[in-house]
């Protein structure tokens, strides 16, 4: 049993590391770090010998596999040059993927002193947009918002930029309202819930 658990744990670690490296590749491309590539007519890509140092920590075979995967998923495209080489770049779909990945690392900063204001997000997202509604709700919970009532979420710290980002990401701006207030009924419930971060 211990041997099986060890194998499973090692497999999980490998999957996580591969996922992190894929993110790194997309983030490097988004940052404008170029990668020279040569390809055959069958679009089997080959990494050129001299590559920027940012890419060198990844094994060429793995990098090549990721490139092929990204190309098939239409996350990247290539600009061909007269010397036969290509420059890899993100497509619009790839750029949106980077934005979504950035959302995974989003966090609301905690100020040194609370300004005694509550940030309230109210949504009325229709059933036809259920995936976006569920995704927004999950993100808000991950950001430590308190679900005060159905479709009403509260947070004590400034988060307008984060909400602006999320409503654009999930394309639900027409259905979401955001406001700040210093007076709410039953405030004790909120104070008790957020006592660790006030």
Biggest sheet, spatial arrangement of strands: 2-1-4-3
How many runs of DSSP E, i.e. beta strands? 8
User: Mean of the pLDDT scores?
Assistant: 77
Tally of DSSP helical segments: 6
Which topology of the largest domain does CATH recognise? Arc Repressor Mutant, subunit A
Identify the CATH architecture of the largest domain.
Answer: Orthogonal Bundle
Q: What separation lies between the terminal Cα atoms?
A: 46 Å
Low-confidence stretches: 1-18, 40-44
Task: Describe this structure as you would to a colleague.
By secondary structure, this protein is an alpha+beta fold. The protein is built from 6 helices and 8 strands. The protein folds into 2 domains: 2-94, Arc Repressor Mutant, subunit A (Orthogonal Bundle), CATH 1.10.10; 106-193, Alpha-Beta Plaits (2-Layer Sandwich). The protein has helices at 2-30, 60-72, 92-104, 130-142, 160-169, 187-193, and strands spanning 36-39, 45-47, 76-80, 86-90, 118-123, 146-149, 152-155, 176-181. The strands form 2 sheets. The protein has a 4-stranded antiparallel beta sheet with strand order 2-1-4-3. The longest helix is centred in the first third of the chain and has 29 residues, at 2-30. Residues 1-18 and 40-44 have low confidence and may be disordered.
Give a quick summary of the entry.
The chain has 198 residues and is an alpha+beta fold. The chain has helices at residues 2-30, 60-72, 92-104, 130-142, 160-169, 187-193; strands spanning 36-39, 45-47, 76-80, 86-90, 118-123, 146-149, 152-155, 176-181. The strands form 2 sheets. A 4-stranded antiparallel β-sheet has the order 2-1-4-3. Strands 6-7-5-8 form a 4-stranded antiparallel β-sheet, with helices on one face.
């Amino acid at each position: 049993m211990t041997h099986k658990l060890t194998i499973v744990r090692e497999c999980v670690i490998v999957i996580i590391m591969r996922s992190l490296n894929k993110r790194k590749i997309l983030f490097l491309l988004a940052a404008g770090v170029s990668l020279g590539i040569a390809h055959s007519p069958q679009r089997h890509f080959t990494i050129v010998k001299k590559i920027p140092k940012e890419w060198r920590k990844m094994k060429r075979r793995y990098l090549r596999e990721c490139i092929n995967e990204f190309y098939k998923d239409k996350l990247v495209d290539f600009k061909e040059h007269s010397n036969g080489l290509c420059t890899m770049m993100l497509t619009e779909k790839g750029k949106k993927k980077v934005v979504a990945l950035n959302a995974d690392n989003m966090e609301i900063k905690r100020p040194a002193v609370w300004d005694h204001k509550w940030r309230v997000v109210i949504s009325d997202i229709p059933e036809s947009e259920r995936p976006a509604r569920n995704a927004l709700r999950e993100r808000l919970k991950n950001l430590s918002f308190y679900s005060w009532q159905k479709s009403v979420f509260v947070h004590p710290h400034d988060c307008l930029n984060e909400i602006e980002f999320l409503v654009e990401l999930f394309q639900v701006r027409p259905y979401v309202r955001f406001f700040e207030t210093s007076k709410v009924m039953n405030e004790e419930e909120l104070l008790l819930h957020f006592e660790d971060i006030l």
